[in-house]
Design brief:
Radius of gyration: 22 Å
Largest sheet: 4 strands, antiparallel
Number of domains: 1
Helix content: 25-40%
Strand content: 35-45%
Order of helices and strands: HEEHHEEHEEEEHEH
Number of strands: 9
Distance between the termini: 71 Å
Strand order of the largest sheet: 3-4-9-6
């Protein structure tokens, strides 16, 4: 189902989608690439995720994106308690050692985050939660980053400024 859903998302590139079960543990690894964080938030709308199993939607989370200038703040709320509803009544050792790990690779270092660890000079954020904690209350991942300037903007801006200065000098000389 995940593969079919990803195939219908033209603005997102699927780099990996693996579901592996070893014993009683299942690992789902989905690696997506996209050009804009806006595309990621579009994927989490109820309309976009209607075809997915509700368990996947609760583990993928609900996104809240806020932009201010070049600053992007993304908050994601995960509800594993809705997936493993019976987990609240299961013996604690049933979920011992079980983890939910979410990794996000950014093009720039995050300004702020609640990640449990970072690497690559702050560009890779990792949230590592005990599954038992997520059964009690929703888990929240959050980061704030400054969107990088496009590579073409600096030469275009410099050229425009040079042209504007040239026009002003020419106009003043003419007067």
């Amino acid at each position: 189902m995940i593969e079919a859903w990803l195939a219908r998302q033209p603005r997102v590139r699927r780099e990996a989608c693996e579901v592996a079960t070893t014993g009683d543990r299942t690992r789902v690894r989905v690696r997506l690439a996209f050009d804009s964080v806006l595309q990621l938030t579009e994927l989490s709308t109820p309309e976009a995720t209607a075809a997915l199993p509700s368990s996947f939607r609760h583990l993928a989370g609900v996104f809240d994106l806020r932009m201010s200038g070049r600053d992007v703040e993304l908050t994601r709320t995960l509800s594993p308690g809705k997936v493993f509803f019976g987990g609240l009544f299961a013996p604690k050792d049933e979920f011992a050692g079980r983890r939910l790990v979410y990794t996000l690779h950014l093009p720039v270092a995050a300004l702020e985050s609640n990640a449990t660890r970072t690497s690559d000079d702050g560009k890779t954020l990792v949230w590592d939660f005990a599954l038992a904690d997520g059964l009690k209350q929703p888990l929240v991942t959050r980061f704030k980053a400054r969107a990088p300037l496009p590579a073409w903007l600096i030469p275009v801006g410099s050229g425009t400024a040079t042209l504007l200065i040239g026009v002003i000098v020419w106009w003043r000389r003419r007067k």
